[in-house]
Amino acid sequence: MPDNFSANGAGIDELILYVHLLMGVLFVGWLAFFLYTIVRFRKSRNPKADHAGVTSHASTWLEGIVALVEAVLLIGFALPLWAMAVEQFPDAKDSTVIKLTAQQFAWNARYAGTDGKFGSNDVKLVTTDNKFGLDKTDPGAKDDFMVINDLVVPVNKPVIVELTSLDVIHCFAVKPMRVTQDAIPGMMIPAWFKPVKEGLYNINCAQLCGNSHYAMRGNLKVVSQADYDKFVAEKSKGSAPASYE
Question: Does residue 72 form part of some domain?
Fold first, then answer.
């Protein structure tokens, strides 16, 4: 797993660590028990079968302890993390909102522009050149702009990505941000993260989506708020900023 550069990723890393520690303890424990039974119940030591069976309840207690630890991991860590990911979304007014439409084999991102408002869209308007079905007669759409594969977001500010797909199921994955979410045709599924370090990160498709699945890559560039404002202003005018090409 790459280093975490998301404010909400520490809990995920902690859960993964505890799960692997439990797996390690179980592996060592069961291996030791297996080797013990091979030696303890070998034929030379037990020439006749014991029809009485095991009388000790130690294994039952061990199984109960393992089940208890698993319950603690589920209830104490996994469920709160899941709730944070799908229920405790940041306010859209205080976040960077991006509408992301996946297709074989590209990421189409739509930004609201300088006014911070998305223009209306209609699925009936979706074409090869208008992948979001944007209603260009809507005044709110005048400064909306689209980028392909190269997303730009500001640092230290929540990012909400509204995901859908034009064709098959894709999966938006940015491992350093600890975010992975399916993009499904006909559905809008939101995901969010909060980047805490400027840099360039890979966007991958984590769902086998066709014969060029390997080529479905993109970039997430995390920049300062000033650079992000400049990016949005220049894109809204229809002129691509050279610093982001």
Answer: yes
Q: Are residues 39 and 122 in the same domain?
A: no
* pLDDT for 245 beyond 70: no
The 3-state DSSP class for residue 220 equals: strand
Give the chain's domain count.
2
What does the block give as tokens for 56?
A: 């000790």
Given 86, 113, 148, the domain boundary residue is 86
C-beta of residue 148 within 8 angstroms of C-beta of residue 108: yes
Q: Give the residue numbers spanning the domain of 36.
A: 10-86
| Bridge partners (DSSP) listed for residue 219 | 150, 202
Q: In 3D, which of 216, 222, 191 has the Cα closest to residue 203? A: 216
Reference 220, options 96, 114, 116; nearest CA is 96
Angle 10-40/58-72 helices, nearest 10 degrees?
170
83-137 residue pLDDT tens: 777 777 888 899 999 999 999 999 999 999 888 888 888 778 887 778 788 887 8
